[in-house]
Design brief:
By secondary structure, this protein is of the alpha/beta class. The chain folds into 2 domains: 139 residues, Aspartate Aminotransferase, domain 1 (Alpha-Beta Complex), CATH 3.90.1150; 263 residues, 3-Layer(aba) Sandwich (Aspartate Aminotransferase, domain 2), CATH 3.40.640.10. It is built from 15 helices and 17 strands. Strands 4-10-9-8-7-5-6 form a 7-stranded mixed beta sheet, with helices on both faces. The protein has a 4-stranded antiparallel beta sheet with strand order 13-14-17-16, with helices on one face. A hairpin with a 2-residue loop joins strand 1 and strand 2. Helix 2 runs antiparallel to helix 10 and helix 11 packs parallel to helix 14. The longest helix has 20 residues.
């Protein structure tokens, strides 16, 4: 088998104008892509071009600009849907993954309240029904389910995480049972960087007829993604984590699921007929897209996925695996570093490592690294329960993307190696 040609991250770096700057007199090493990615010039140019040449309301008006804007907007839907292996009617625009998960939770709540008719009854929750999540959730895939449970009387349960960061599948098999109605989980943890066993979890959920919801925020920018092939019912992702702009994301759903779910937000653009007392709704995806949509952002996101496709997602993943190994092996060699979820080398991961520097607060570590031009994330990364699982309140997280080089990783490691001595925390 021929290996993939090596991705030239140094050449790609030139496509991202923000990376040309210096911080603290040092070349910027941006290792916070799990929080938000940087944007290539083509994405910036695409959004500016729409706003300066084609800006108009879509799906309205008979004038030329409106027609051109509508074509670009719907072409963007088709392009982004294809990037995740879906058809265009399976992609709902949202403002991001958080909005997408809340949409699902409130739609299920509306079904529980009797909205949506016979087709939606399968989603209704009764007191004592169960929603299963994991111990490794971002708050965005935890709090909406807490609120749904509180509104409906459902019970929220969680799949624990082993000391090495992998999910306890034996516990999942015992948790997912006859009363389980929803199983929601991350494709990749935003703290651990571990690719979770989607197939096994989907099989468990399908065996009891539960709805599966996948948080694909950390997988969409880093691994080849085919959501229909994964077998999940619903999935969400955010544009700003995958080289796109803020304020745009996607909700993928199997067509029969989206068409059966009752809408959440209501208003213009998602209806067929309205009287003073009732309304009929369009099929998906428009039934979930009330009001003015993020048009320029959607078009720019299409440019982002075109960029990723041109580079090749298989090449991106292969490159980032090299960075991941270099980062994790290097951190292991530094005294006083504790990695969160240091799973065995055979576990599939992305280039993301969260760690503790013993004797030094994470915020101090972040400032020390920033002074050396290395940008990382510090805090609980919107995953407080997972940090408590590992006995800490905050960690340092370094996360790479396709524009990072091995030199970037070496600069991180060199900076981290000097933290404890600087703060007088060494032995």
């Amino acid at each position: 088998m021929n290996s993939l040609p090596a991705l030239d991250a140094g050449a790609l770096r030139a496509d991202f104008p923000i990376l040309a700057q210096s911080v603290g007199g040092q070349r910027l090493v941006y290792l916070d892509s799990a929080a938000t990615s940087q944007k290539p010039q083509t994405v910036i140019d695409t959004e500016i071009a729409f706003l300066t040449q084609t800006n108009a309301a879509v799906h309205r008006g008979a004038h030329t600009l409106a027609a051109e804007a509508t074509v670009l907007f719907e072409d963007a839907r088709e392009r982004v849907a294809a990037f995740v292996g879906a058809d265009e009617e399976q992609l709902v625009w949202t403002s991001g993954a958080t909005a997408g998960i809340n949409l699902i939770a409130y739609a299920v709540g509306n079904a529980t309240a009797g909205r949506g008719g016979a087709a939606a009854r399968r989603f209704a929750l009764a007191p004592g029904d169960e929603i299963v999540v994991t111990e490794a959730e971002h708050h965005a895939n935890l709090i909406p389910w807490q609120e749904l449970a509180a509104r409906t009387g459902a019970v929220l349960r969680h799949i624990p995480v082993h000391d090495d960061g992998t999910l306890a599948l034996d516990a999942a098999a015992s948790l997912i049972g006859a009363r389980t109605k929803i199983v929601a989980f991350p494709h990749i943890s935003n703290v651990l960087g571990i690719v979770n066993p989607v197939a096994e979890l989907v099989t468990l959920a399908q065996s009891v007829g539960a709805l599966t919801v996948l948080d694909a925020c950390q997988s969409a920018p880093h691994v080849p993604l085919d959501l229909p092939a994964l077998g999940v019912d619903l999935a969400v992702f955010s544009g700003h984590k995958m080289l796109g702009p803020y304020g745009i994301g996607g909700l993928y759903g199997r067509a029969e699921v989206l068409d059966a779910l009752p809408p959440f937000l209501t208003g213009g653009s998602m209806i067929t007929t309205v009287s003073l007392n009732s309304a009929d709704y369009l099929p998906a995806p428009q039934r979930f897209e009330a009001g003015t949509q993020p048009v320029s952002q959607a078009i720019a996101l299409a440019a982002a996925v075109e960029y990723l496709d041109t580079v090749g997602m298989a090449a991106v993943h292969a490159h980032e695996r090299v960075l991941e190994r270099r980062m994790r092996e290097g951190l292991r060699r530094i005294d006083g570093i504790r990695l969160l979820g240091d799973a065995p080398d055979g576990v599939d991961r992305v280039a993301l490592s969260a760690f503790e520097v013993q004797g030094v607060h994470a915020h101090d570590v972040g400032q020390f690294l920033d002074a050396r031009g290395v940008a990382v994330r510090v805090g609980h990364h919107c995953a407080q329960p997972l940090h408590r699982r590992f006995g800490m309140t905050a960690s340092v997280r370094a996360s790479a993307s396709l524009y990072n080089t091995e030199e970037d990783i070496d600069m991180l490691l060199d900076a981290v190696s000097g933290v404890r001595s600087f703060f007088g925390a060494g032995s």
